[in-house]
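Changelog-linked ticket: zinc ion example.
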Amino acid sequence: MNILRIALDVPLATLFDYLDGGSAAQVGQRVLVPFGARKVIGIVIARSATSEFETARLKSIIRVFGDEPPIPPATLKLLAFCADYYQYPFGQALLAALPSRLREAQPAILSRRVGYALTEIARQGGEELIPKRAASQRKLYAALRDTDALDSAALALLSPGWRGALRAMREKNWVRETTLDQPSATGVAAPAPPLNADQQHTVQTILDGGGDFRVWLLHGITGSGKTEVYMRLLDAMLADNASQALVLVPEINLTPQLEARFRARFPRHSIVMLHSRMNESERLQGWLRAQNGEARIVIGTRLSVFTPMKNPALVIVDEEHDSSYKQQDAMRYSARDVAIMRAKMADIPIVLGSATPALETWHNAQTGRYHLLTLSQRAVQSAALPALRCIDTRPHHAQDGLSQPLLVAMRQRLARGEQSLLFINRRGYSPVLLCGACGWVAPCARCSSRLVVHLRERKLRCHHCGHEQRPPLQCPSCGNPDLHPTGHGTQRLEETLARHFPEARILRVDRDSMRRKNAIKDMTAKVHANEVDILVGTQMLAKGHDFPNLTLVGVMDTDSALFSPDFRAAERLFAQLLQVAGRAGRADKPGEVLIQTNFPDHALFAALQKQDYAQFAQSLLEERKLAHFPPWCFEALLRAEATHLAPVQTFLDLAAREAREIKSKITLYDIARPQMERLKGMERAQLLAQAASRQALQKFLQTWVARLRALPQASKVRWSVDVDPLEY
Ligand code: ADP
Ligand code: ZN
Ligand code: ZN
């Protein structure tokens, strides 16, 4: 059994055989192997006595990282399932799921931060032990007394003389060295509010459901107390000393507030955060601590769904409908769906939470595959639901994007010292640069999109490919020097508001203004400290924040989504508006939501006013049934792109022919161009396949994709398969 079958990060759906070189490399362990002229990291998937290749010609591995814990079988199995389901090479799927440090040829070790703690002698002796003149020592003492331990960075903040003070206190045996990242043994949990009847019922039902696999859908509007329910479940499930839980949140939801809330509630459990804003060594440490069972709660975004755990007992997916759970490149997986598969494989319960579940999820709850639980009101009694009203922008023509009724409402808030939020879905100054004489608009040279005006930087920028250029001095088409930024983005709205309300403190929140590290944290603090009167922001502001003094939400532009060709646009708009509405009036002040639209009679607004997701979902489901769209069918999209359209067309023609030769009940659509026909200089086209069942689709894809890989024309284009696509 000296042959190792190894997964490598190469675009081939196969494992690679190597000799073990006499090592005791186990399944799941990392190895360094020669691959062509390179040395690459691989993962051992199996040992074998035979190879289909001549043993004499097999190479030996160079090194095994034998001190590292092997990646557990459950993680390998989950990734193998995903590679299969999403038609992606297993080796690439597996290696991409690892923290990047595990793709480097360095041993991964669990490191511990050194911390300092008071000794028992010092605690008992009290502050009187410390000489009166030793001010730095007194500061250190006071800080250490209130906690388990602090690291040197924390001590350095207390006093410039901390080094000397620490040395002196250690010599007297008042302070000892310890390791951090351990949960606090003495921590006192923040008090939990008594649950209301809905919450009580929910928690009890899920707990009564037992520890086996079951999918719960927790449906409740923002502020209905879903997070509180999650925490109660964690509390109950983690009472067992070894068990662990995985909590998935959308990227944008991972606010400092959420982390603080969990840490305050579970001071005795080690909590690990895993998201894109942390550095690679932090990610590795979090991963290792989840794997060895030390981290009891893992809170993370999409990619953390693959984090190995020793004793998983519960999975939670918050805002399960959020599109950030879908990976849009490489392996195009849905972290929500993978989480469900993971819970199924581990035979543990999973809770999906949302105010506006994805229609696919809702459908599953309606048909009884998932178990629906509802929180029907806001958790804080006095927090009334915001009143929702449309402002008809036909009579109330919006001069510079802002209608009179909205301005009046904002002025009221300013007078009362309350906060307003204006929600606009476009960052930048204005979405287009227009020539009034000939109608020319500045296009992106690489995409079929328009360049967005960023006035402050004096730049035109493509939000799809990142291309930047200076604005032309005159119209390239007719020579007219008078070019106008047209339409509204966050920057322009901010400027307009400053003109209307010169006395107001205005803060813009979008990707541009929040680029800095800690920018979100600072913004949150400012809003809480009432240092902001008006917030202008994109969807970044729609979720996860809790601003008690915010009583007005204005929504600027929705009409394009009302009539979008994308059949999911209405579902998304409803979710987005309900979520923004959730920002208003969370505490004891009633909130109001004003939506500017040319179509106030649209059915979507009626449902929104009643906050009636169920009815809205029902009508959408019926529409989709008639149109034969998901969830009434299952889809896969074959995308292809190249610098010229011809090879794309040829490849897709062949792909369509292959598909027709496979005996299946697949509906294959004609070759089509996506909404963005050109992107980053590439011409794009696609082929959509539909099936009545997941199984039928999977069976078809197995054969089809294998045949596609074998096509010589496949190497002439960039192509990919998107199973359960969300964008077309
Ligand atoms: P969601 O996750 O559905 O948005 P949260 O769990 O964050 O809702 O609850 C909203 C607010 O209500 C939070 O400030 C939370 O502390 C509070 N809350 C939740 N449940 C209760 C309860 N049973 N009693 C009092 N306050 C509660
Ligand atoms: Zn012109
Ligand atoms: Zn572009």
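Closing comment: Example verified and attached. Residues 444, 446-447, 449, 462, 464-465, 467 surround zinc ion (ligand 3) (CB under 6 Å). The mean pLDDT is 92.
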